[in-house]
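Lab manual, section 2.4: Encoding a predicted structure.

Procedure: take the sequence of the chain (407 residues), apply the prediction step described in section 2.3, and record the output as structure tokens. A sample record is shown.
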Amino acid sequence: MKCRFCDTPLHDVFLDLGSAPPSNAFLRAEDLNAAESWFPLRLHTCGNCHLVQVDEVQKHDALFSGDYVYFSSYSRSWLAHAEHYVAYASERLGLGPDSLVMEIASNDGYLLQYAKARGIPCVGIEPTASTAAAARERGIETIERFFGLAFAREFAASRRKADLVIANNVLAHVPDLNDFVAGLATVLAPGGTVTIEFPHLLQLVAQHQFDTVYHEHFSYFSFHTVQRILAHHGLRVWDVEELPTHGGSLRLWASRDSAAHRETPAVAGLLAKEATAGMLDMDFYRGFQHVADTVKNDFLAFLLDCKRSGKQVVGYGAAAKGNTLLNYAGVRPDLLGYVVDASPHKQGRYLPGSRIPVVSEASIRDTRPDFVVILPWNLREEIVAQLAYIREWGGKFVTAAPSLVVS
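Recorded output:
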């Protein structure tokens, strides 16, 4: 196996979670008597560029199929994040009716709906048929394709280049990084800007977020590594923001034209922060296996104690990160009776691997569980506020990372 950016042979294992099915391969009732496909889930660190990465053991077109069940619009906090971003970017970059905004991996139009509402021409690039259809119902032009250099050349030649290219939480999902980033540079208009959001590897390590590892995430990024990848393809990062989303993310602002924007102090500041944390040394990337095992073992011990004492434990949020945790810990319906999710696209299905049923929120009121495990811990505040009524019968909330918390 070689680094998907710099082609360096990989030897250092960052994390080994054994094997698991793809985290968004939810099952229907008729699938329960059939076998599932499980794949190794092991991350390596490149000794040259420090890119943390999983082998592409399953092809991305199989992972992001027409039956994809993740729809961005079912999180109120994520919609608010998207609306705020569109307002900020529009003002900062002076976008208007003569501009073109392109979002890659535009999902169900959760973000571009706000650009459209401002009268800014926009187009989404989204390979999954289910979410692309939902975006079109919102009136968002959506091209059902995977993004890469060939597509970028085709679009730029037949249409025009984009003034703003948005790549929110998609860079990690790309198996061919060089092809993808070369496409960003190709489809970007002179003086245009690309913004990229992705979970920060520094926070993944600091906050013990091993459950954010799954097959759909091919790569895990530090700032200095992404800056190096972009520079290799002629894109200069001129600003970076640290965001609270997904447990700690970065938003990069980059352009092809070095004179288009002055570099902000935040760029040098974050590079220094990563250096101080030790991210330029391979020792930083070793020892994380013990952290993941501790989180897993503490969570499993809690579930077993509840089982012995007759307490009912259920989950909330059929998120990919939850599937990583449940499958690594070997949790099944005897320990976690069901998982609630707000998305009707997941309700009535079963989690991959664990085969725990996904139900609507009505089940919580009906069964009055003792504990609700919040699997998407990054949405803890939103979920606690939504389910505050469980306090009426003494119910408590549980999160497993960065450490077990019962409250």
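Check your result against the sample. The longest strand covers residues 188-199.
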